[in-house]
Specification:
Elements (H helix, E strand, L loop, with lengths): L1 E5 L2 H14 L4 E3 L8 H10 L1 H4 L4 E5 L2 H4 L11 H16 L4 E5 L13 H17 L3 E3 L2 H5 L2 H4 L9 H22 L1
Parallel strand pairs: 1-2, 1-3, 3-4, 4-5
Helix pairs in contact: 1-9, 2-5, 5-6
Length: 184
């Protein structure tokens, strides 16, 4: 079964682990390009339109770039723009594949001065119920990573550590496997 992984550098970090965990029964497509912001992901879906044709399941994430606050004047993407863009992504994917899974944005360490966990929590809490209403499967990566950010987040205070990559890869593979079982 063909599946696609879309998203930012967090997705890039666990893609190979997902591929290995799913094994030969799944063809996993994961673009080399970092999807960055939700709007960039929207564009990437257009670029990946040929690969989407035979895809049955898409697992995607976005948020760390959207929530980033580099200048102290608020998140790069407003809440409403994030909602509008992610729901548009969801609608586009739902029209093209059988199952869509959204991964919540992971936390950072408190030392990360540009990505506030309170903003991450707020954006996750806003988007998750709206996606569930559309039938999107939610993969809560935030909660297990938040349980021990010094174990699961690397010293750069933002990206997954090796243990975090391994844990998230297993969680993503499990969600995909469960979604695939519903299609059989």
């Amino acid at each position: 079964m063909k599946v696609m992984l879309l998203g930012d550098s967090i997705r890039l970090s666990y893609s190979e682990g997902v591929r290995k965990a799913l094994g030969a029964d799944f063809e996993v497509h994961s673009p080399a390009d970092n999807s960055r912001f939700s709007k960039y992901l929207l564009r990437q879906i257009f670029e990946e339109r040929e690969a989407l044709k035979d895809t049955r399941i898409v697992h995607f994430n976005c948020g760390l770039w959207d929530i980033c606050n580099l200048f102290g004047d608020g998140t790069f993407t407003s809440e409403q723009e994030y909602i509008d863009t992610v729901l548009r992504i969801a609608d586009i994917l739902l029209a093209r594949v059988d199952k869509v899974i959204f991964a919540t944005t992971i936390p950072g360490r408190k030392e990360n001065i540009y990505n506030s966990n309170s903003d991450i929590i707020r954006f996750n809490e806003i988007i998750v119920p709206l996606l569930r209403e559309k039938g999107i499967i939610i993969n809560d990566l935030y909660t297990p990573v938040a349980s021990d950010v010094y174990r699961y987040i690397s010293d750069d205070n933002l990206h997954l550590s090796d243990e975090g990559v391994e844990m998230c890869a297993i969680m993503v593979a499990d969600k995909i496997r469960n979604a695939a079982a519903e299609l059989e």
